Amino acid sequence: MNVPTQKVMHGAGPRVLSVNLGSAGPRKAGGVTGIDKRPTTVAVMVTAPGRKGTAGSGLAGDQVCNRRHHGGNDQAVYAYAREDLDDWQRELGRALPNGSFGENLTTLGIDITLSIVGETWQVGADLVLQLTDPRIPCRTFADFLGERGWIRRFTRTGVTGTYLRVLQPGRVRAGDPFRVLDRPHHGVTVRTAFRALTTEPELLPLLTRVHSLSPEARRTVATRVPIAVDSDPA
């Protein structure tokens, strides 16, 4: 996928295009997963779920099945841009409805890839979120998409979407506007953080100034040992 350095965004202002919830379903490789998320038309309460390992999603009614690797306060919400899903639709030649990447919020009008890690968003009237880590692709994601070489392709683009923590709870529904409340001065984008944490560890020193990363990501920065991305399923 050819990813431009800047996207032309919709003129109506950033907004939540859809809120997507998942329930437990079978995983192709065995076990269960909540990655299959579907849009809901009702307002959904979003709160800080608690510690990773025991807590799941920040969205009421959304299931996280593998709590060892997913969920918890620093992965309370996952957002992916509709514009990026549209790029993937053209690349893959198939429809990708909102929620197709397992995202809780499908956004419109903001370039998440070039957003700054640690910036805060007010969503709707009350909800305040903070960008934490980029998404690291895993085999569950690859199995769900069913695209050959998916982990490698997704990693190559660096268009990962972002996890967010909840700073102030509130309700969210499709159509809610959102705005950037605060943007850190360090300038590290979601894409740069992903590259540093995975394929370009020489960039890790840039992340020493990024204090909003999850504890796992901060350990990677401290040890200078990049995260090993899963290999693609055979």
Explain how this protein is built.
Helices cover 18% and strands 24% of the residues. It has one domain (15-223): M1 Pyruvate Kinase, Domain 3 (Beta Barrel). The chain contains 5 helices and 12 strands. The longest helix has 11 residues, at 82-92. The chain is an alpha+beta fold. It is globular and about 45 Å long. It has helices spanning 82-92, 139-145, 150-157, 190-197, 215-223; strands spanning 15-22, 25-26, 32-33, 37-40, 44-46, 77-81, 105-108, 120-123, 127-134, 162-168, 170-172, 178-182. The protein has an 8-stranded mixed sheet with strand order 4-1-7-6-10-9-8-12. A two-stranded antiparallel ribbon has the order 2-3. The chain starts with 14 loop residues before the first strand and ends in an 11-residue tail after the last helix. Strand 6 (77-81), helix 1 and strand 7 (105-108) form a beta-alpha-beta unit.
Helix and strand topology:
Elements: E1 15-22, E2 25-26, E3 32-33, E4 37-40, E5 44-46, E6 77-81, H1 82-92, E7 105-108, E8 120-123, E9 127-134, H2 139-145, H3 150-157, E10 162-168, E11 170-172, E12 178-182, H4 190-197, H5 215-223
Parallel strand pairs: 6-7
Antiparallel strand pairs: 1-4, 1-7, 2-3, 5-11, 6-10, 8-9, 8-12, 9-10
Summarize the model shown.
The protein is α+β, with helices and mostly antiparallel strands and 234 residues long. It has helices at 82-92, 139-145, 150-157, 190-197, 215-223, and strands at residues 15-22, 25-26, 32-33, 37-40, 44-46, 77-81, 105-108, 120-123, 127-134, 162-168, 170-172, 178-182.
